[in-house]
Specification:
With about 475 residues, the protein is mostly helical. The protein has one domain: Up-down Bundle (Amino acid/polyamine transporter I), CATH 1.20.1740. Helices cover about 70% and strands about 0% of the residues. A hairpin with a 5-residue loop joins strand 1 and strand 2. Helix 6 packs across helix 17.
Amino acid sequence: MDLFRRKSVTALQAEAAGDHSLKRALGPLNLTALGIGAIIGTGIFVLTGTVAAQNAGPAVILSFVLAGFASVFAALCYSEFASLVPMAGSAYTYSYATLGEFIAWIIGWDLVLEYALSATTVAIGWSGYVVSFLADLGIYVPAQFQAARGTVVTMADGSTVTALFNIPAMLIIGIVTTLLVVGIKESASVNNVIVVIKLGVVVLFIALAAQHIDPDNWKPFIPANTGDRENFGFSGVVAGAAIVFFAYIGFDAVSTAAQEAKNPQRDMPIGILGSLVICTILYIAVAAVATGVLNYTQLDVPDPIAKVADSAGLGVFASLIKLGAIAGLTSVILVQLLGQSRVFYSMSRDGLLPSFVQKIHPRFRTPYITSIVTGFAVAIPAAILPVRDAAKLVSIGTLLAFVIVCTGVLVLRIREPHLHRPFKTPFVWFVAPMGALSAGYLMFYLDAQTWLRLLIWLAIGFTIYFLYSRKHSKLASPGER
């Protein structure tokens, strides 16, 4: 039993060149927009507030800097792999070529957790902004159906209602799933429009709200630690970075679309690095403005940016910002569900999941079965989970993927040093280890419950691999099948 049997890079390149089942319709602008569509979302519109209030205070700015710093190393490694192996599947495919099938399975199974729960987390945030925006229009979603089960919702008159489940979150998952089934080009076009709106709203928020900053709200910049490692002090800043790391999953999602890029060797690094740089700058600016306008203790709400806009007295612009947040979060859900379905597609193509998973729609040329199954799987936790728990699980999954990708780049440099690499990670012997170490460092600051949930999820994955996937793998010898 060879747990570390590999697919050769040259075989993967030949497979990518000869596989025309997915439509190559995405250029560098589309790919950069996909990254921005995934990155600018819950991190800005939801987690900025909760991390400031519960972890870092105004130093949530530093949390985003730390998370961005770690992401740059990983993004450079992803860019090398994405240009070298232009296949759907992201870190899963890269691991298969470098570290072997068992590690590839672990990362593929981890990516299922990463993308599915990311879409869940964002759908929960989307629901909060939709409820707030509709209330501005005099339309009220019943409190029982606007949040996770057990969440206490405070009404306008001060009374409280315990929520049953989150209907708006389920609704948006259904809409986005339908769009993904219809087609990748249509999905990308819709995403491009949404990204333009979203960027406009974020820049508008920064420009208008910055005029209402009170520097006293930044004092103390790093509140004293409360005795809990996650709450304030520098350890709280690092814990905050580990949580907001969830927001940087976007460039990972770009790499899952490599098989649908027109010129992946050139365009993938542009999409990955371009989206990361743009979004990191915007994250830091929004965090600075939000904590400057309102004291960090007031930001622990489902829609913190909307609250800051209202507090700044932006009037009609506050409603526009909420609308932009809704559009922005919609594009994040779209990209995460796109990434999830492409990872399933790649694992099925390799025999690690049943063949029906990779079935392509005859008209739309999309992996429609896996898109629909993913949609159902994401809608259920979106209806019942609170946003913070889901975000922590996504962060730990993302960080684990980054550790493996950064390690894989080094392994392949040693194993196959003469491969033609259209994009080479600069200073790879520094960048790749720093990427793995910084991601591992942030993982250490996530709580024990999050680690336990990750281990349970991986245990389920191990069971599936040894009972089904190992025997059905296309790399398995006849005697193993």
